[in-house]
Amino acid sequence: MRIVFVGPPGSGKGTQAKRIQRKLGIPHISSGDMLREAVSKGTALGKQAESYMKKGALVPDSLVIDMIMERINQPDAEKGFILDGFPRTLPQAEALDEALSKSDQQIQHVIHFDVSDGEIIARSTARRLDPETGKIYNIKYDLPPPEIMSRLVQRSDDNEETVKNRLAKYHEETEAILDFYRQKTNVKKISGVGSFEEVEERLLKALKNE
Question: For the chain, does the N or the C end have fewer beta carbons within 10 angstroms?
Answer without folding.
Answer: C
